[in-house]
Amino acid sequence: GGTPASARRFGATQAAIRSASEVGAERDPVAALHLQYAREQFTQAEQLSRSGEGERAERVLARAEADAELAMALSRRTAAMTAAQQATAQVRQQAQTPSPITP
Questions:
Q1: Cα(21)–Cα(4) distance, integer angstroms
Q2: Are 47 and 61 within 8 A, CB to CB?
Q3: Over the Cα atoms of the chain, what is R_g?
Q4: Is-contact 75 38, C-beta < 8 A?
Q5: What is the pLDDT of residues 31-57, one digit of tens each?
Q6: Is residue 22 predicted with pLDDT exceeding 90?
Q7: pLDDT at residue 99 is higher than 90
Q8: Are 68 and 17 in contact (CB under 8 A)?
Q9: Burial level of 103, CB count in 10 A (0-12/13-18/19+)?
Q10: Is 58 left (phi over 0), alpha (psi -120 to 50) or beta?
Q11: Partner of 45 for a Cys bridge, out of 31, 53, 60, 102, CB 3.0 to 4.6 A?
């Protein structure tokens, strides 16, 4: 038999998954896919750890954490791009609106 994966690694991976979800990764299709991968890998790592395959579980947890962090970054990028597009649209609208004439 082997040893279970570390509780610290499980906690860090779980935190990364939760953070990705909190920043809205589900709203971005690509980010949502990576978040789904992270959740599936987390479940797989739990099963591996229970089976005594701690080293393998640690590697799967590392992949899960990386996928969760990627989901978070993609979600933030999408949010930033949306905000930039909205700001650009506002600037264009203001540029097209004639300013009031003062006597």
A1: 26
A2: no
A3: 22
A4: no
A5: 999 999 999 999 999 999 999 999 999
A6: yes
A7: no
A8: yes
A9: exposed
A10: alpha
A11: 60
Angle between helices 29-50 and 54-96 (to 10 degrees): 170
Indicate the length of the chain as a whole number: 103
DSSP class of residue 25 equals: G
Q: Considering only CA atoms, which of 36, 44, 34 is closest in space to residue 10?
A: 44
- Which pTM does this prediction carry? 0.80
Q: Over range 13-17, report the average pLDDT.
A: 97
Cβ–Cβ under 8 Å, residues 37 and 67: yes
Token pair listed for 67: 């996928």
Q: What per-residue confidence (pLDDT) applies to 55? A: 94
CB 42 within 8 A of CB 13: yes
Tokens at 55, concatenated: 């080293």
Q: How far apart are the first and last CA of the chain?
A: 89
